[in-house]
Amino acid sequence: MRISVIGCGYLGAVHAAGMASLGHDVIGIDIDARKVEALTRGEAPFFEPGLPELLREQVDSGRLRFSTDLELARGARVHFLGVGTPQQRDSDAADLTYVDAAIAGLARIVGPGEVVVGKSTVPVGTASRLLECILDAQPDASLAWNPEFLREGFAVTDTLRPDRLVYGVRGGDDAEREAGERDAALLDEVYADLLEADTPRLLTDLATAELVKVSANAFLATKISFINAMAEICEQTGADVTMLADAIGLDPRIGRRFLNSGLGFGGGCLPKDIRAFQARANELGVGESLHFLREVDGVNQRRRARVVELTRELTGGHERLDGITVGVLGLAFKPNSDDTRDSPALDVARQLLDLGATVRGYDPEASANAARVVPELALTDSPAEALRGADIAIVATEWQEFRDLDPASPELRDTVASARIIDARNCLDATAWRAAGWTLRALGRGTT
Ligand code: UDX
Questions:
Q1: Which atom of ligand 1 is nearest to the CA of 155?
Q2: How far apart are alpha carbons 303 and 396 in whole angstroms?
Q3: Which pTM does this prediction carry?
Q4: pLDDT tens digits for range 258-310
Q5: What tens digit of pLDDT does each residue of 223-240 get?
Q6: Theoretical Cys-Cys bridge with 282: which of 4, 214, 261, 287, CB 3.0 to 4.6 Å?
Q7: Per UniProt, where does NAD(+) bind (predicted)?
Q8: Residue 66: beta bridge partners?
Q9: CA angle 339, 345, 351 (to 5 degrees)
Q10: Contact 321, 394 (CB under 8 A)
Q11: Which atom of ligand 1 is nearest to the CA of 262?
């Protein structure tokens, strides 16, 4: 089937490559010429395990092309919409500029029988408005919503082996229902291989599909802030939050996944999605229903402040950190990603710099992005180099490379003069580090 994918960021680029690997003939469209050139060479414009291989294979097969020219999307039976919906500059609401521009473009080229399928995360109610735009331009075209749940670092697997497929389609009177059924049947053709592999498929209306995505992210953010709130209590009582998470996580109603306490959530999705969700609820007059998300955000921000406070505590307890050097291991918002958008690690680095500290940072993949966001950060090429001459080390992103560090190795042990380390992601073997002579403090865990 001929498919177009509008917007080739994290979501769109992976989706385009994934659809080509399902055997479709795919054109990816993006306004960024440099991104299109890289993708055309089969190169991923960002770090994503497995994506370069998939891109190269699919570009070589001739099934996957990229262009800045929307005209090339003309005639595709399905037009996936995968553009970004960032937070507005001066408010919590989602910025729909890219979505609206893409729909205006699609309205010019969409033909009868073709379906626009939204994948971007949008405020509930957006899809029905966009449907009107498409129908005004082409009454025999249609629109459905098919949210994307991919995680960075696992984007390829999540696209080719998703937990579920959610189709939001038109409904209402008989004609609308029939249109919705036709759109669902077309999506079944697109995803035939995934459905054959027994991927659960849920058919619903447009508004529910939009809400599935934002409520899933709100739930995940809440789960993380819940365990981080418990970490705050643990810190005051000498209890151990990781043990607590293991114990409550064994209850299948709770589950252990997404209960890792530490520096909290960041990235291009969870923080802005929970804020946009609250802004939308306010607009709808049901703001109170999501007031708790303010607390979720609050707990999340406090974890960052706590790491800064611990750094001060462990380096003499002064208000400012002038003359103190901090080695920060991990700058990406999470491991297996080079993404530094709303990265908790970088936020901590920024706060330490503001207090007068010298901050040396290391990340296996995110250095280039980190340099753009926090230019004052001294970037290094290895953990040992980041820690050389440091008064204190902070593990801020749980890359495997940091878990594998040998605390007893002289290369490391002798670099941090005072052998103090904050495990802000609860990812180190505290016993081994302490046995090697380090003073280790972890978030939400005792000091012994
Ligand atoms: C998230 C959703 O998981 C995904 O379904 C959605 O499509 C996009 O947003 P992503 O932002 O890629 O994906 O990262 P995710 O793995 O969910 O992690 C988000 C943040 O939460 C990271 O900063 C991570 O470090 C943090 N996190 C995650 C925790 O602090 N504790 C956990 O237990 C899990």
A1: 12
A2: 11
A3: 0.96
A4: 999 999 999 999 999 999 999 999 999 999 999 999 999 999 999 999 999 99
A5: 999 999 999 999 999 999
A6: 287
A7: 30, 35, 85, 121, 152, 272, 341
A8: 28
A9: 125
A10: no
A11: 30
Q: Which letter does DSSP use for residue 94 in this model?
A: B
Q: Does this complex have an ipTM over 0.95?
A: yes
Q: In terms of residues, how long is the chain? A: 448
- Last-in-domain residue among 172, 199, 226: 199
Question: Which of 333, 339, 357 minimizes the C-alpha distance to 424?
Answer: 333
Pocket of ligand 1 (CB under 6 A): 149-152, 217, 220, 224, 258-260, 262, 264-267, 269-270, 333-334
Task: Answer yes or no: are the C-beta atoms of 210 and 120 closer than 8 Å.
Answer: no
In this predicted structure, what is the pLDDT of residue 410?
A: 84
Note whether residue 396 is domain-resident: yes
Atom from ligand 1 closest to the CA of residue 335: 25
Within a domain: residue 169? yes
Per the CB < 8 A criterion, the answer to whether 417 and 339 are in contact is no
Cβ-based burial of 128 (10 A; exposed 0-12, middle 13-18, buried ≥19): middle
Q: Which of 8, 234, 269, 427 is catalytic?
A: 269
Distance (angstroms) between ligand 1 centre and the Cα of 240 equals 23
**Do the annotations mark residue 340 as ligand-binding?**
no
Task: Of 320, 260, 311, give the one whose Cα is nearest residue 439.
Answer: 311
Place of tokens 């290391």: 362
pLDDT at 417 over 90: no
Contact 276, 240 (CB under 8 A): no
Active site annotation includes 269: yes
> Strand, coil or helix: what is 447?
coil
Contacts of 149 (CB under 8 A, 6+ apart): 158, 162, 163, 164, 213, 216
Nearest CA to ligand 1 atom 9: 269
Question: What is the span of the domain harbouring residue 260?
Answer: 237-448
Token pair 């940072």 is found at 361
Query: Residue with the nearest Cα to atom 26 of ligand 1?
Result: 265
Average predicted confidence (pLDDT) for the chain? 96
Q: Do 152 and 253 lie in a common domain?
A: no
Q: At what angle do helices 10-21 and 51-61 cross, to 10 degrees?
A: 50
Contact 330, 249 (CB under 8 A): no
Query: Which residue out of 220, 254, 347 has the highest number of ligand 1 atoms within 8 Å of its CB and is therefore the one to mutate?
Result: 220
Are residues 330 and 187 part of one domain? Answer: no
- For residue 265, how far is its CA from the centre of ligand 1 (angstroms)? 6
pLDDT of residue 448: 58
